[in-house]
């Protein structure tokens, strides 16, 4: 919550905040991630966007990620210029497989009066029924669907089973109505890792500070393992 009012009216009041929860491996973070977060902040009127780097994402247990400390540091560099952005490292601190429901439980306990909005791309949203405790996730947070302009159709995504059964018709319609439209930017973390491994430039695809950090710490210089993923 955030304080409102002040000495002028003789009192301080607490106002509930709208918190966006943006999870992923961020291996590495790139400008597409930042564009999604800023589009969500602006269009959904979020007070803060929490970037949540996973320790081990459930769908990426077979691939070795850059160390969590490095991914957290790169996120801090990438988000430092936007005061509404924050890096929330609970999943890295917990270690092991990172389950979204556990993260939301801890956030809901820490922010009981605030509303949580789970930022999801179309593939992640479609796969929500397969996540651990999807019903509980929907109790703790409202899905905030991101639609890439000209490429995705969130209305079609929420109309398909088994997602529609999980959401119910009313919630499905509301998610589609509240979707965030984001410019389609063809940047993926996989592409950056592959470029670095063969010595190609990643300039203008990630913030300059992140590019320098990667070079200084020698990250991603070995050929990356190719793993299919719905999240970049």
Describe the protein in words.
The chain has 232 residues and is an alpha/beta fold. It has one domain (16-186): Rossmann fold (3-Layer(aba) Sandwich). Helix content is 39%, strand content 18%. It has eleven helices and eight strands. The relative contact order is 0.18. The model is unreliable at 226-232 (pLDDT under 50).
Helix fraction bin: 25-40%
Residue windows where pLDDT falls under 50 for at least 5 positions: 226-232
| CATH C-level name | Alpha Beta
The figure for the number of domains is: 1
The name of the CATH topology is: Rossmann fold
Distance between the terminal alpha carbons, to the nearest Å?
31 Å
Number of helices: 11
| Computed Rg | 18 Å
In N-to-C order, the SSE pattern is EEEHEHEHHEHHEHHHEHH
Mean pLDDT reading? 92
SSE diagram, text form:
Blueprint: E1 2-6, E2 11-15, E3 18-24, H1 31-43, E4 48-53, H2 68-79, E5 85-87, H3 90-94, H4 100-110, E6 115-120, H5 122-126, H6 134-140, E7 142-148, H7 154-158, H8 163-167, H9 169-177, E8 180-182, H10 189-197, H11 208-217
Parallel strand pairs: 3-4, 3-6, 4-5, 6-7, 7-8
Antiparallel strand pairs: 1-2
Helix pairs in contact: 2-11, 4-6
Brief summary:
The chain has 232 residues and is of the alpha/beta class. Helices cover 39% and strands 18% of the residues. The strands form two sheets. It has a six-stranded parallel β-sheet, with helices on both faces.
